[in-house]
Design brief:
single chain
Amino acid sequence: NIKDYTIEFIEKDSIPLNMGIPCEKTSYSFGIGQCGNIINTLSGYTIGYNIQVIPEICNLVFKHNYNLEKVYLDFWTFKRRLIYNINLIGLKLMNTLPEKDLCNFHHYYFKYIINSSNFNIMFLNNNNYSSLRLIFSFRHYLYFPKKYLWNIGQSLF
């Protein structure tokens, strides 16, 4: 019944977006798609990722009887939070590189990372996750020039 609803606010020339990982009780978006940060932070990869995780989210909605706070907390596991934050570090790194260095960085990235387990974990959020596997996946970065390793280290802080 329409009488059972109240208008919280009227949008005008804006779309409310979540900030970071959407676990806020006051969030206006449900958390699917780019507006809900169901996106790979580093790559912008979203369509396939959403197709992969929406069934999981729907199952959590039913499991928690539409309690969205519990759905978010159950969905955003330690693994997903860790990958999300590592990807933010990568984004921070790429934003600091001049265009020439960024192109060169991508050369190394495509040569050593794309076919590695690191790519499967960080970009595809592969379900074969383990902390040891994640840590070991970073060994491929040792092929990068030292200046990029230094920049990666600086991006951690």
